[in-house]
Backbone:
């Protein structure tokens, strides 16, 4: 498919799960890298929806707990002991509000490293849907800083631009 797309004079871009989740859905960054002109890992930290780190990481832990009949708190502790950027409160913070910027940045940095020399753009959440995603100006500047610090080539404004509040656009303008 990539060869056919390029033959038609188009670029190939891949929208992938974040590096920490990609193996669970059969995505191999190293294998996919030569097929892409650029990649956007879905490192969404705020949305309560599919492919969002905020939804997927706690759901993965909860499903493992259910399948193994292990208390979720035991797995929360395991995550704190074995995963970079996690402490005993990280999963509860994710469930209640958002993925820490440090974890988002680590996922972007992992993508940059695994996909080199392919440019990596991170998904910048700007949308406000009450009950699903509530992006505040501080979130915008924090996400941009996380992406820049992780070596991303840039950002892709995600989802429905008709639901981007003015304060989010102002915050984006200030950090650019």
Residues:
């Amino acid at each position: 498919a990539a060869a056919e797309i390029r033959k038609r004079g188009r670029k190939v871009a891949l929208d992938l799960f974040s590096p920490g989740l990609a193996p669970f859905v059969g995505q191999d960054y190293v294998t996919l890298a030569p097929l892409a002109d650029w990649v956007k890992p879905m490192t969404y930290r705020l949305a309560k929806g599919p492919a969002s780190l905020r939804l997927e990481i706690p759901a993965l832990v909860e499903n493992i707990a259910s399948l193994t009949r292990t208390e979720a708190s035991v797995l929360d502790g395991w995550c704190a002991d074995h995963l970079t950027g996690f402490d005993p409160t990280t999963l509860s913070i994710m469930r209640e509000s958002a993925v820490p910027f440090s974890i988002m940045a680590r996922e972007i940095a992992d993508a940059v490293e695994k996909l080199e020399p392919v440019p990596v753009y991170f998904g910048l959440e700007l949308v406000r849907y009450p009950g699903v995603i509530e992006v505040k100006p501080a979130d915008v500047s924090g996400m941009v800083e996380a992406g820049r610090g992780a070596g991303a080539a840039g950002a892709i404004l995600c989802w429905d631009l008709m639901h981007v509040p003015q304060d989010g656009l102002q915050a984006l303008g200030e950090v650019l």
User: Anything to note?
Assistant: The mean pLDDT is 92. The CA atoms of residues 45 and 100 lie 7 Å apart. Helices lie at 2-7, 29-32, 53-68, 72-82, 90-96, 101-115, 137-149, 166-175. The first helix runs from residue 2 to 7.
